[in-house]
Specification:
This protein is α/β, with parallel strands linked by helices. It has 13 helices and eleven strands. It has helices at residues 30-38, 41-44, 55-65, 92-110, 124-129, 137-144, 173-176, 179-195, 222-232, 246-251, 266-277, 312-335, 340-344, and strands spanning 17-22, 47-53, 75-76, 116-119, 151-156, 159-163, 203-207, 239-244, 260-263, 282-286, 292-295. Helix 1 (30-38) crosses helix 3 (55-65). The longest helix has 24 residues, at 312-335. Bound molecules: zinc ion. Residues 167, 266 line the site of zinc ion (ZN).
Length: 345
Amino acid sequence: MAEIHANDPELHPSSRIRIAVSMGDPNGIGPEILAKVLVDHAITDRIELIPVGSVSVLRHYMERVGQDGPEPYVEDVATDTEFELLPGRADPSAGRLAMHSVERAVEMCLEGRVDAMTTCPISKEVIAHAGFNFPGHTEFIAEKTGTGEVLMMMVSGSLRVGLVSAHIPLSRVAGAVTIESVQRTIGLMADSLRKDFGMERPKIAVLGLNPHAGDGGVLGNEERDVIVPAMAGLSVEAELTGPFPADGFFGSGKWKKVDGVVAMYHDQGLGPFKALSFGQGVNMTAGLPVVRTSPDHGTGFDIAGTDAADPSSLRAALILAAEVAERRKNALQSTGGPSTAEIEA
Ligand SMILES: [Zn+2]
C-alpha cells in the first residue's frame, strides 16, 4: 500500500492537495471514519480535507474521537432541520443528506475549489427510498459530470482490478461479456493507468470467463468467440496478455507482474482483490473528469455509533486521490493546459 513519506517532494509539494470528502450516510460509519482521519496528522499535514455534509453530525463524532485543535471547516449541506442522528437506522432523510453531500462535492471539484473528491459509504437501499434512482455513487457522479463511460477500478498498491460486468445477477453475466464491453473496459483501464498512474505503456492482463478459460472450448466458448477477438481488435497503448484462467492467475502470483487486471464479473475480480488487500482496498472511478475515490466497504450499519469502525480504507482512498490529483495537475502544468481529450474524458 502507498504510504505517505514526510519528505517526499514529488508527492507533497508546498501547497497541499485539497480533497472534498462526502460524509456518506450519516447513520452509517462514514462520519465516524471521517472524524478519525480529520484527527490523523499524517493525513492532514499533507492533504487539506474539506468534509461535506452536516456540521452537527460531524461535530458529534469529532467530540467522540477527541478533536484537539480548532474545529475544521465543514461544507454544510444540511437543510433538513428534522434530521435526527440514529446510528444503524435506514432512514430516507439520511439518504437525502448523503446524496446532497455527494452532489456538493462534485460541484466543488467542477468549480475547482478542490482537486479531488473521496466519498464515504452510502446505502443503495436508503438512497432509493430517498428518491434517488441510482445504483450507487459511480452512476450518480457520472451523470452529474456528464460522463458517458466510466470504470469502477479497485486499487491496492500495485493490484488494480477493473470489471467488465459489475452489479448484475450471475445468470446475466455471460450475455454482458461482449466484444464492446471487453474493449471498453480495457480501454478505460489503459487510459487511467497512463493518465492517473503515470505509466507509459501499462501491462494489462485479461481474465477468461469460464473455468480454465474455456479449456479449448470444452468448458465454454466466450474466450474464443468474444475475449480473444476483443483483445486482438483493440488498438490501445498497452501490452495485453490473456485470457488467463482466473484461479491460476491469482494463485500463482501472475498478478504481481502486471499493472492492471480485467476481470469478467464482480466476484471473479473482487474475491481475490479483497483477500489480497487486507482492508486497505480503494474503489476509484476511472474515466471521470474529476478524481474520485472511496473506501471499498459499505455503511457498516451493524457497527455504526460504536466507535468500532476502521478508517484504514478511507485513509488509503485519500492518499490515492491525492496522488492521482497531483499527477493530473503536473500533467496540466507540463502541457500548459488541458488537452481537448482531457476535457472530454
Ligand atoms: Zn460490489
